[in-house]
Specification:
The chain has a domain of about 160 residues. It has a two-stranded antiparallel sheet. Strands 3-4 form a two-stranded antiparallel sheet. It is built from 23 helices and four strands. With about 675 residues, it is mainly α.
Length: about 675
C-alpha cells in the first residue's frame, strides 16, 4: 500500500501533504495533553511495532503492496490520536531510511494508513461495537479485529482512487499517462480484491490474536486507553441502546464525499443525455431537470440535487425518530441485584502486581467469584517423537530439505535490516563529498531536487539526472555496485513489473508498435507507443527519486538527520518519537529473534504447522506490547533521572560554509536546467 515517489503528481502530493498538517497538529496537541510524557517511549515502541508489522509485503497490481498496518490495534491500546502519530512515525522511518514509500508521497501515505484507517476502523467500527462492553469480553477483541479489517480496506480504497485519477488528470499530448498508468476501472478492483481477501485477513488475524492475548496475559496494557471500562461482564449494567441522530447523516455524508469523482468521468450520467432523458424523466418535480426547456438547465439540476438529498435526509430522520420513540415506550429492563458498576478505581486480580500482594495476603477472596480453572488433561506423546524420520544425505537423493516458515523469513529480513543499518552508519561518517555538507542544507536541497524530478516529463532528462546521482555516489565514496543494488533491488524492478500490463492497448490506447496477436473475438492486442513511453517514464522517475533519498540517508547519520529535521521546524515531539522508534526497531527485532530461537530449541522436526505459526505470531506481538509497556516505564524513569522535562536536546551544532553555498548553487542550477530542458523538449 506504500506509494513510492513518481506514482503521484506533485500537485496530488502537495494537496495531501497540506491536508495532513492540521491532522498532525491536532493529533500532536491531544497526544501531549492525554498521553502525557511518561507514555512517549511506549508511543515510540508502538511505532516500531507498526514498522515490523509492515515489513511483510505482498505485491499486488498498480504499484502497491499489501500488508498489515496495525493502526487500529495501536488505536485500541493507546488511542486514535496516538495511533496517527505512531503510524506516521513508522512511515517516515520507512520513507527516509529504507526507501519504502515516497518522501513526496508521505502526505498521501499517512492520509491512507494513519488517518483513514484509524478513523474508520476505530470510530466507525470499534467504538460502536464496544459500547458498554467489558474489557475482557471476546466481543471487544472481535470488534478491534473487524475495525482493523474495515479500516485497512478503506485505506486501500483511498489509495486506489489516488492512483486511478492520475491518468485522467495528468497525461501528455499523445494521451500517455505521466504518472500512475491505471484508471479507476483497474485500480479499484485490483486493490480491493487484494485487501479484502489477503491483507485484510492478515490484519484481522493479527489484531484479534494480540487483543485476545492481552486480555488473558496483560490487561494493564489495555487499561491505558480504557480506564473506565469494567473488567468483566458480571460488573456491567447495560442500558438500552439508543440510536443517535447523526447516524442518519452517515450514508448521505459518504455519498457527498465521493461525488467529486463524477467530475472526471467522461461519459454522461444516467438520464442526463437530452436525447434519452425525456422518456425517463417525463414526470419530475422540477421541469428543468428533464432538459425539456433550455432555460437554466444547470440551476434546475443543482436545485433538484439539493432537494433530493434533503428529502432523503428527512425520511431518514423520520425513521430514526420513530425508532427512538418506540424505544422510549419500552418498559425498562430489570437490573441485577448487588453492585453493578466498577469504576476506574476498582482493580481486578489481573491488575494487581505480585509485589502488591504481601507474603501473607490470601488470594482466595480475589478468585472467589471466578469459575474454577479448567482441568488440564495429561498430554500424550507427540507424533513427531514416535514416528521415525528418514535422514537426508548430503547429495539430496533421500529426503527433501524443508523451506523456512514465513516467521523465519521475516526474521532473516530483519537481520538484513540490521546489517544495512550498521553499514549505513559507517558510510555516513566517511570522508565523502555529501558527508561534509551541512545536514540542513542537504535535506532542503535534496527535497527541492525531488520536486524537480517529479515535474520532469521526458525520459532523457530523467536518465541524465540518474547519471548525476551515480556521480554523486562515487564522489561520496559509496560502492557503486552496492548503491545500484540498493536502488534497483525492489522498487524500480517491481514498478516495471506492475506497469507492464499498462503498455498493452487494452489499458493504454494508442498506436500498436509491438503486436502480440489477437484475443476475444478477433481484437488485436499489443504494446502501444504511448504505453511503453508511460512505463519507461514511471520506472525512470521512481529510480531517480529513490536514488536521491538513498544518497541522503547513506551520507547522513541518523542523529544528524533528526537534528536537521528539527532545524526546519518539524515538531519536537515527532522528532523525539521517531528517534526513539528507530532504536526500538532493533530492540524488538532482537526480542522476536530470541523468542523464536527459544521456540525452535524446544521443537524437533520441521516447523510446518501454519496454525501454530499464526498463534506464535499473535502471542509474540502481544508479548512485545507487554515488553514495550515495561520498557517504556524504565526508559521514562531513566530519562527523568537525567533531567528530562519533555524537550529533546541535541548536542549537534551546524554551520554554513563556502562548500554549502557552492552546493546550493549547483542544485539550483541543476533544477533550473532540468525543468527548462524538459519543457523545451516537450514543446
Amino acid at each position: 500500500m506504500h506509494i513510492p515517489d513518481g506514482y503521484l503528481s506533485p500537485e496530488t502530493c502537495g494537496v495531501f501533504g497540506a491536508g495532513m498538517v492540521p491532522v498532525f497538529a491536532t493529533a500532536g496537541k491531544r497526544v501531549r495533553r492525554v498521553v502525557k510524557s511518561r507514555y512517549v517511549p511506549l508511543l515510540a515502541l508502538a511505532a516500531a511495532f507498526s514498522f515490523l508489522v509492515m515489513m511483510l509485503n505482498v505485491p499486488i497490481p498498480d504499484g502497491t503492496t499489501a500488508h498489515a498496518v496495525g493502526a487500529v490495534l495501536i488505536a485500541v491500546i493507546l488511542g486514535p490520536e496516538a495511533a496517527i502519530i505512531a503510524i506516521s512515525t513508522a512511515l517516515a522511518i520507512q520513507a527516509l531510511f529504507f526507501g519504502d514509500g515516497g518522501v513526496l508521497a508521505y502526505g498521501a501515505n499517512t492520509f491512507n494508513m494513519a488517518f483513514v484507517m484509524t478513523m474508520v476502523g476505530y470510530f466507525l467500527v470499534y467504538k460502536p461495537l464496544t459500547r458498554n462492553v467489558s474489557l475482557t469480553s471476546p466481543r471487544r477483541a472481535f470488534a478491534a479485529a473487524l475495525g482493523g479489517y474495515v479500516g485497512l480496506c478503506a485505506a486501500a480504497f483511498c489509495a486506489a482512487i489516488e492512483f486511478g485519477v492520475q491518468p485522467e488528470l495528468f497525461k501528455s499530448a499523445s494521451g500517455a499517462p505521466l504518472y500512475a498508468p491505471y484508471h479507476l476501472a483497474q485500480t479499484i478492483p485490483a486493490m480491493m480484491v487484494a485487501h479484502l481477501t489477503v491483507a485484510g485477513g492478515v490484519e484481522f488475524a493479527l489484531t484479534l490474536g494480540v487483543i485476545l492475548y492481552l486480555q488473558r496475559a496483560n490487561l494493564p496494557v489495555l487499561r491505558i486507553n480504557h480506564a473506565d471500562a469494567s473488567e468483566s461482564d458480571a460488573d456491567l449494567a447495560k442500558p438500552p441502546t439508543r440510536l443517535k441522530w447523526w447516524y442518519a447523516l452517515g450514508p448521505i455524508a459518504a455519498i457527498a464525499l465521493i461525488t467529486p469523482l463524477g467530475l472526471i468521468y467522461n461519459s454522461g450520467a444516467f438520464g442526463e443525455d437530452p436525447a434519452r432523458a425525456k422518456p425517463v424523466w417525463h414526470h419530475v418535480l422540477f421541469s428543468g431537470y428533464d432538459f425539456s426547456h433550455d432555460k437554466h438547465p444547470a440551476v434546475g439540476y443543482i436545485i433538484s440535487a439539493f432537494v433530493g438529498a434533503a428529502l432523503i435526509a428527512l425520511v431518514l430522520f423520520g425513521l430514526f425518530g420513530l425508532s427512538r420513540l418506540v424505544q422510549r415506550r419500552r418498559p425498562p429492563a430489570a437490573q441485577p441485584a448487588g453492585p453493578t458498576t466498577a469504576g476506574p478505581t476498582t482493580l481486578g486480580p489481573t491488575m494487581l502486581a505480585p509485589t502488591m500482594l504481601g507474603p501473607t495476603t490470601s488470594t482466595a477472596a480475589l478468585t472467589a467469584d471466578r469459575p474454577p480453572p479448567t482441568t488440564i488433561s495429561p498430554s500424550r506423546t507427540p507424533d513427531w517423537l514416535i514416528q521415525s524420520q528418514v535422514g537426508m544425505c548430503p547429495c539430496g537423493c533421500i529426503g527433501k530439505r524443508q523451506r523456512g516458515s514465513y516467521v523465519q523469513k521475516t526474521l532473516s529480513g530483519g537481520a538484513t535490516l540490521m546489517r544495512q543499518a550498521m553499514f549505513g552508519e559507517d558510510v555516513a561518517t566517511g570522508p565523502g563529498l555529501l558527508q561534509r555538507i551541512d545536514p540542513r542544507v542537504k535535506l532542503l536541497t535534496m527535497l527541492s531536487v525531488l520536486i524537480g524530478t517529479a515535474l520532469v516529463r521526458n525520459i532523457e532528462v530523467l536518465l541524465s539526472l540518474y547519471a548525476v546521482t551515480l556521480v554523486l555516489a562515487v564522489a561520496s565514496h559509496l560502492k557503486l555496485s552496492f548503491f545500484v543494488k540498493r536502488v534497483w533491488l525492489f522498487i524500480p524492478v517491481f514498478t516495471g513489473v506492475v506497469v507492464l500490463p499498462a503498455t498493452l492497448n487494452i489499458v493504454t490506447a494508442g498506436h500498436i508498435v509491438v503486436p502480440l496477436g489477437h484475443w476475444w473475438f478477433g481484437h488485436r492486442i499489443g504494446m502501444t507507443s504511448q504505453g511503453l513511453h508511460s512505463a519507461a517514464l514511471i520506472v525512470s522517475r521512481v529510480a531517480v527519486s529513490i536514488s536521491i533519498v538513498v544518497l541522503l540517508t547513506l551520507t547522513t547519520p541518523w542523529a544528524k538527520l533528526m537534528a536537521a529535521l528539527r532545524a526546519i521546524y518539524v515538531p519536537r515531539m515527532f522528532i523525539q518519537i521517531m528517534a526513539m522508534a528507530y532504536r526500538y526497531i532493533f530492540y524488538l527485532l532482537g526480542s522476536v529473534d530470541d523468542m523464536y530461537t527459544a521456540r525452535k530449541s524446544r521443537m524437533v522436526g520441521a516447523d510446518t504447522d501454519v496454525k501454530a505459526g499464526r498463534a506464535f505470531v499473535a502471542a509474540t506481538a502481544g508479548a512485545l506490547f507487554g515488553k514495550a509497556h515495561t520498557l517504556s516505564e524504565e526508559v521514562y524513569m531513566a530519562m527523568v533521572s537525567r533531567g528530562y522535562t519533555g524537550n529533546a536536546v541535541s548536542i549537534d551544532t551546524f554551520q554554513v560554509r563556502a562548500l554549502e553555498a557552492v552546493w546550493v548553487a549547483a542544485c539550483a542550477v541543476t533544477i533550473a536546467a532540468t525543468v527548462g530542458i524538459d519543457r523545451a523538449i516537450g514543446r
